Amino acid sequence: MAIKWEGVMPAVTTKFTKDDELDLVTFEKNINAQLEAGVNGIILGGTLGEASTLTPAEKETLVKKTLEITAGQVPVIINIAEQSTKEAIQVAKNAEAWGAQGLMLLPPMRYKATDYETVVYFKEIAKNTSLPIMIYNNPVDYKIEVTIDMFEELLADCPNIEAVKESTRDISNVTRLKNKFGDRIKILCGVDTLALESMVAGADGWVAGLVAAYPAETVAIYKLVKSGDIAEALRIYRWFMPLLELDISPQLVQNIKLAEVATGLGTEYVRAPRLVLQGAERERVKGIIDAAMAVRPELVEYKSL
User: Fold this and answer.
1) Residues 85-128: pLDDT tens digits?
2) Which of 10, 125, 142, 264 is least enclosed by beta carbons within 10 angstroms?
3) Which residue ranges are tagged as binding site?
4) CB atoms within 10 A of CB 72
5) Terminal CA-CA length for the chain
6) Which CATH homologous superfamily contains domain 7-227?
C-alpha cells in the first residue's frame, strides 16, 4: 500500500491488562474509533506506544492485529527506536515481513550521534528495506537534530525516505523544508500544541497524540484547516489546547491514557517503570480532562470536507 503521508496519523497507545499483558480487546476498540473518525494511518510503537518496553513478539502481535483491524483501509506504520544500527535494520526487516507498510525512524537511542553518524544510520536502514520511511526529527526530547543539510544528503541517496515528523518546536522549519525540498518530502507536525499553526504554514499532516482519546476532534481540526475554515478549526483547537498540553510532558503516556479512560477508549494501565499517575498530579491532570469534557464541543460535519 502506498502511503500519502498526509492527514491525521495517530501515534497510538499500547493497551495493557492489569497483569501487564497486551490488551487487544481495548486496543481494537480504539483503532476502530480512529478509523471511524477518518484517520489516514496508524503508527505503532512510538514514544506514546511505550516502544522501549515492548518485546519483539509484542511488536509482531501489534502489527498483525492492526493489519487485521484496518483491513487495508489505512497504512500501518511502526516506529524504530533502537540502540544499534544492526538492531534497527533487523526491526525494519521484521516489520516488512510482518506486513507493515511504512516505518518511522528515530535517530540512534542513548548515544548522541554526530551528524555524520546519524545520516549513515538512517541510510543503512533505508537501503535494507523497501518500505517508505518517515524520519522523526525531535531534538528537544532526543537531543539529535536532523538539519536541512542532513536531509539534503538523505533525500538525494534514499528515495524511500519520504516524510518527516517535524518536532523541532520551530514552526518556521516547515517553511524552510518546503522552500528547500518542495513536495520531495512530506511534513507532518509531531507536536500537538503546534499542529494548527504548522498546517496553516503548509504541513501536510499531523502525527497526533491526544487523538488517542479524541479522534473526531483531531481529524476535524485537520479537515477544517485544509478546507480553509480556520475560524471553525480555531474554535475546536482552543477548546482542545489544555488537553493537547498533556502531550508535552514526560508523563505523556499516563496523561493520555487517563484521557482515554474519560472517553471510553482505553485504560490507565502502563508498563513499568512507568506507573499510573498518583496523588496531586493525578488530580491535576484529571481536572484538566474533566473540565474539557464538561464543555466538549459539537462538531460540524467534517468528513466530506
Assistant:
1) 999 999 999 999 999 999 999 999 888 999 999 999 999 999 99
2) 264
3) 207
4) 9
5) 24
6) Aldolase class I (3.20.20.70)
